[in-house]
Amino acid sequence: MINPFTDEYFMKKALQEAEMAFEKGEIPVGAVIVIDNKVIARSHNLTELLHDVTAHAEMQSITAAANYLGGKYLMGCTLYVTLEPCQMCAGALYWSQISRIVYGATDENRGFAKMGTQLHPKTTVVSGIMANEASELMKRFFAEKRK
Ligand SMILES: [Zn+2]
């Protein structure tokens, strides 16, 4: 039996969320949080709609997952996000003690790695999963904005 629950499988769900952000005119970033192969939170960037610079996809998913689990820590969870988290989200992920972060495209300007933000020592990171799809969506968004 091939395990259907690959990182690509869940990243596709995060990309679907990013598409929803795109359709709303938001910078297209999507996220899902998974525990035991079950999606317990899904969200996309809503900073324009909510007039809230903290409404990044990751921040909303962290809150939703903690609500679902009934506790503030996300040990045992994996976050899938289409774009490398910024330093705000990396900071929140630090506090959540999330076990794994899987992201798609690298954010050369505002990614946490560039900013030198530390993740929790127990958090493992995988990058580049469906990175092309994620960055194509971003490019398409900014190209349409310029029109
Ligand atoms: Zn962020």
From TrEMBL:
SUPFAM superfamilies reported in the protein's UniProt record: Cytidine deaminase-like (SSF53927)
E.C. number(s) listed in UniProt: 3.5.4.33
Record GO terms (molecular function): tRNA-specific adenosine-34 deaminase activity; zinc ion binding
GO biological process terms on file: tRNA wobble adenosine to inosine editing
Keyword Metal-binding found: yes
Keywords per UniProt: Hydrolase, Metal-binding, tRNA processing, Zinc
Pfam families noted in UniProt: dCMP_cyt_deam_1
CDD domains: nucleoside_deaminase
Limits of the CMP/dCMP-type deaminase domain: 5-115
Active site as annotated: 58
Residues bound to Zn(2+): 56, 86, 89
Cofactor(s) listed: Zn(2+)
Cofactor binding summary note: Binds 1 zinc ion per subunit.
Reactions catalysed according to its record: adenosine(34) in tRNA + H2O + H(+) = inosine(34) in tRNA + NH4(+)
Subunit: Homodimer.
Role according to the record: Catalyzes the deamination of adenosine to inosine at the wobble position 34 of tRNA(Arg2).
Family label: Belongs to the cytidine and deoxycytidylate deaminase family.
Designated name of the protein: tRNA-specific adenosine deaminase
Organism expressing this protein natively: Flavobacterium urumqiense
Taxonomic lineage from the root: Bacteria, Pseudomonadati, Bacteroidota, Flavobacteriia, Flavobacteriales
